[in-house]
Amino acid sequence: MSTKKKPQVTPTPERRRELLATAAEVFAAQGYNATTVRRVADEAGMLAGSLYYHFDSKESMLDEILSTFLDELWQGYDEVLAAGLGPRETIEALVTESFREIDRHRPAVAIYQKESKHLATQPRFAYLADSQTKFEKAWLGTLERGVTEGAFRDDLDIRLTYRFVRDTVWVAASWYRPGGHHSPEEIARQYLSMVLDGIALRT
Amino acid sequence: MSTKKKPQVTPTPERRRELLATAAEVFAAQGYNATTVRRVADEAGMLAGSLYYHFDSKESMLDEILSTFLDELWQGYDEVLAAGLGPRETIEALVTESFREIDRHRPAVAIYQKESKHLATQPRFAYLADSQTKFEKAWLGTLERGVTEGAFRDDLDIRLTYRFVRDTVWVAASWYRPGGHHSPEEIARQYLSMVLDGIALRT
DNA sequence: TAACCTACCAAACACTTGTTAGGGAACGGT
DNA sequence: ACCGTTCCCTAACAAGTGTTTGGTAGGTTA
């Protein structure tokens, strides 16, 4: 069932984004491999072959979805990292920025979560592995700085802490729905409160 | 490349477990849909058709992998929940038990993480949805009890807290490797320390 | 030795998959 | 009225998919 009301007069680049948005939605819901090109086309209100007027292949759709997401993500991250904040403030800003990206690119984030691990081995998606390396450097570095500067506890395995913080943020994409009760900023605030101060009541 | 040294004299039920173990390993690494039956058979040192002597279908392998995992999981959970512990102690026991299950059934947990969401809609895998409901009831109930009894903070969205705790535990299956530096119990201890008390240094 | 069972192979089947080639309707510019 | 562009359809293809069928080596039992 596709809802198609527009008088099929949509300029080229916008149509691309529309199609990529629906493709991302289906990929995120069903999984990339489990999603057929025919399913995506059906959701877009056209036939499978017609997609190939806009895109080279199914893989190139996935590529474009993930790369545009990562581009925008790093645009925000780099801004935060260049601001010269303290460790705690950097973590807070990164987490907040992350939830904003989840809000904007929820399907892309969900796809990234599920597929990036075995996609990163393919040469075409090598930038996924690059991004992950950069990601680890930024977060782990900030955490280490926080430990030496006395902002964070020093009795924890720092790599465990890194994975803990990283995962808690990004898995949110699996249940987050835009337009829910909480804004991305509010969710970030509560997440940070839990990660930094814990959920136990202080006595 | 399959390593096969045994003189193909293995009793039936054990052979089943062997095959399911390798299938789970491949499913977890490549994704269920992206994994072909031929790939699993190859990893097991036999041809694709030969798998159908042991199993009805590819889907029934997945079914058996997930259901046996969930059976064992709930065996441990029910034991904890029946012990009549306080909220905090219950959470601690559940987390510890969870990491033990990850240690035992890492591939199954990884598969469950990736596929359960869209599998739960299929009638055959309805038990996945049931398990998730039961899961939420146990964890959320314990957290609520902890809030009213003064063990946990009351200024947080309880459902957000639930998802936070739940996710932080289970995503560990994506990076955990048995035989690593930390035992499941040690990982559980540090995770609990972070979740309960936070990563910030108390001043 | 004969009958039998287990665990696999060899070869094919029906179907789905991503993808392509040619064609045509709608529309704007000239 | 003509041309060109945009965007989609029709119809097919080749490769890969899960699965089935018949057969058989090797061990166990009688």
From TrEMBL, chains A, B:
The answer, when asked if Glycosyltransferase is one of the entry's keywords, is no
In this entry, the residue ranges of the DNA-binding region are 36-55
Instruction: List, for all copies, the residue spans of the domain called HTH tetR-type.
Output: 13-73
* InterPro entries in alphabetical order: Homeodomain-like_sf, HTH-type_TetR-like_transc_reg, HTH_TetR, KstR2_TetR_C, Tet_transcr_reg_TetR-rel_C_sf
Q: Which UniProt key words apply to this protein? A: DNA-binding, Repressor, Transcription, Transcription regulation
Q: Give the matching Gene3D superfamilies.
A: Homeodomain-like (1.10.10.60), Tetracycline Repressor, domain 2 (1.10.357.10)
> From which domain of life does this come?
Bacteria
Q: Tell me what this protein is called.
A: Transcriptional factor in putative operon for degradation of branched-chain alkanes, nitroalkanes and may be also cyclic ketones, alkenoic acids
Species of the source: Streptomyces globisporus
